[in-house]
Design goal:
Layout lengths: L5 H5 L4 H14 L5 E2 L11 H12 L12 H15 L8 E4 L2 H12 L5 E6 L4 H8 L3 E6 L10 H7 L4 E7 L11 H11 L6 E5 L20 H6 E6 L12 E4 L2 H14 L5 H12 L3 H22 L14 E2 L4 H4 L2 E2 L2 E2 L3 H12 L1 E2 L1 E2 L9 E4 L4 H16 L2
Parallel strand pairs: 1-12, 3-4, 3-5, 5-6, 6-7
Antiparallel strand pairs: 2-8, 7-8, 9-14, 10-11, 13-14
The structure holds pyridoxal-5'-phosphate (PLP).
The site of pyridoxal-5'-phosphate has 13 residues, from helix 5.
Length: about 400
């Protein structure tokens, strides 16, 4: 028998991908499940991006590029950081990876090892703790209170820092809560972070373009020169350009860290897909009309789903500021009795909802908050209406 490593035994499969797979399977079997589990926009990749990829493919030379990406894509990313985030990087401070997730993995491999700790605010994106564990380090969680829009305070951060803390992972706008930190709130966190020389920040800004009500995303790297030095910014084209399947993400920050990440990547995967790199240049240099349309659609769905949830018995829901998720509080629903038994947990609730209400949601426990469930509204308004009708009918039977 082959023996698995501790690392392999320790890592959990992605719960969100599992829920999606289950919902798709039920649909394939003719069951009309409304899927609120999706982690990707339900819009096609804009045509001008696809056209560029087709054109490039036709010329036939689809070869290796430098492992960390072409100079052309790095220049497009360099311009994006300057234009959108007021951050200036050299191209040697930029790496392009097979999705933002891969860039995050590279950061963890370059900065963390056994004995180190990484602070992750909860509710968190499911992959952060696993990527930290894969590096040998230990994740440490701080819970952002619902009353504070699921955001942590500088005091909470300071309390969690020890001499072992090497990385603080920030995700604004957030998956799963849709919360966003203001410039002032980021400055408050920065004041604490700047005191600790050993501490670096991973700022995952992949949802920066999916924001509502005129909110503007601010990068923590842009609040001071010191924070720029201490932060590795993560971004990508998956969400803003509906390009999840193209697998392009990127990171920018300290030159030595980026160099180490590039070496790691060069042995693990070599360059990200060459065609997708060309398409990404087109995406980053585009006008953004499709984005405006997509944000408008998400905004309409966001308002609708939050209202419907808040109108239901036993459920309350904070209005998210960005991304395409809502995280309703189901603590009262957990205490309800279903088929003679208290529901008891977010996992059990999601299992019942899938079977009885035919809706797929992700249990909050997977994001570190058992009093919640996550619903993605990256699905048509029609589907959302039907799903909410199903949920309401179920809740009314309790
Ligand atoms: C917060 C967050 N970061 C990163 C990613 C990964 O994006 P990519 O498709 O670029 O790997 C996701 C995808 O769900 C996400 O929600």
């Amino acid at each position: 028998m082959m023996q698995l490593t501790k690392r392999a035994l320790n890592v959990k499969p992605s719960a969100t991908l599992a829920i999606n797979a289950k919902a798709k399977e039920m649909r394939a079997n003719g069951i009309n499940v409304i899927n609120f589990g999706a982690g990707e926009p339900d819009f096609p990749t804009p045509a001008y991006i696809r056209e560029k990829a087709i054109e490039f493919t036709k010329q036939g030379n689809i070869l290796y590029t430098p492992a960390s990406g072409t100079l052309e894509i790095k220049k497009a990313i360099q311009d994006k950081f300057k234009k959108d985030n007021n951050l200036e990087y050299k191209t040697s401070q930029i790496i392009v990876s097979n999705g933002a997730k891969h860039s995050i993995h590279n950061v963890c491999q370059a900065l963390l090892e056994e004995g180190d700790e990484a602070i992750i605010p909860a509710p968190y994106w499911v992959s952060y703790p696993e990527l930290v564990k894969l590096s040998g380090a230990t994740p440490k969680f701080i819970f952002g209170k619902e009353e504070n829009g699921f955001k942590i305070t500088p005091e909470q951060l300071e309390e969690a820092i020890t001499e072992k803390t090497k990385l603080f992972i920030l995700n604004s706008p957030s998956n799963p809560t849709g919360s966003m930190y203001t410039k002032e709130e980021l400055e408050g966190l920065a004041k604490v972070i700047e005191k600790y020389d050993q501490l670096a920040v991973l700022s995952d800004e992949i949802y920066e373009k999916l924001v509502f009500d005129g909110n503007k995303h601010v990068s923590i790297a842009s609040v001071s020169e010191k924070m720029k030095e201490k932060t590795i910014v993560i971004n990508g084209v998956s969400k803003a350009f509906s390009m999840t399947g193209w697998r392009i993400g990127y990171a920018a920050g300290d030159e030595q860290v980026i160099k180490a990440m590039s070496s790691i990547q060069s042995h693990a995967t070599s360059n990200p897909n060459t065609i997708a790199q060309v398409a990404t240049v087109a995406a980053l240099e585009g006008e953004g009309e499709d984005l405006t349309m997509m944000v408008k659609a998400f905004d309409e769905r966001r308002k609708y789903i939050v209202k419907r949830l808040n109108d239901m018995k036993y459920i309350s829901c904070v209005m998210p500021k960005g991304a395409f998720y809502v995280m309703p509080n189901i603590s009262k629903l957990k205490k309800c009795v279903y088929e003679g038994k208290e529901i008891g947990s977010s996992t059990e609730l999601c299992r019942i909802l899938l079977e009885s209400a035919k809706i797929a949601c992700v249990p909050g426990i997977e994001f570190g908050g058992d009093d919640f469930i996550r619903l993605s509204y990256a699905t048509s308004l029609e589907n959302i209406k039907e799903g909410m009708d199903n949920l309401e009918a179920f809740v009314n039977t309790l």
